[in-house]
């Protein structure tokens, strides 16, 4: 991943907020929401690891 860590964090927060809002509005169940959030966490971890590697 080539984006800066602050950009990755912002994208993570936005995407997670969206997933939670969709759950709160009844558009997704808890399992689906948790799956989406886990995917976003993994993407953020990858961005953080890339940042540590100097990529």
Distance between the termini: 8 Å
What integer is the average pLDDT? 90
Which percent bin holds the helix content?
over 70%
Quickly count the helices. 2
**Sheet of most strands:** none
Textual characterization of the structure:
- The protein has 55 residues and is mainly alpha-helical.
- It has one domain (5-54).
- The protein has helices at 5-24, 30-52.
- Helix 1 packs antiparallel against helix 2 (30-52).
SSE blueprint:
Elements: H1 5-24, H2 30-52
Helix pairs in contact: 1-2
What key attributes describe this structure?
mainly alpha, single chain, 78% helix, 55 residues
Could you give a short description of this structure?
This protein is mainly α. The protein has 2 helices and no strands. 78% of the residues lie in helices and 0% in strands.
């Amino acid at each position: 991943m080539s984006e800066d860590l602050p950009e990755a964090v912002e994208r993570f927060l936005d995407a997670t907020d969206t997933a939670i809002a969709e759950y709160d509005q009844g558009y997704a169940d808890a399992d689906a929401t948790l799956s989406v959030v886990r995917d976003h966490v993994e993407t953020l971890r990858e961005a953080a690891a890339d940042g540590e590697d100097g990529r």
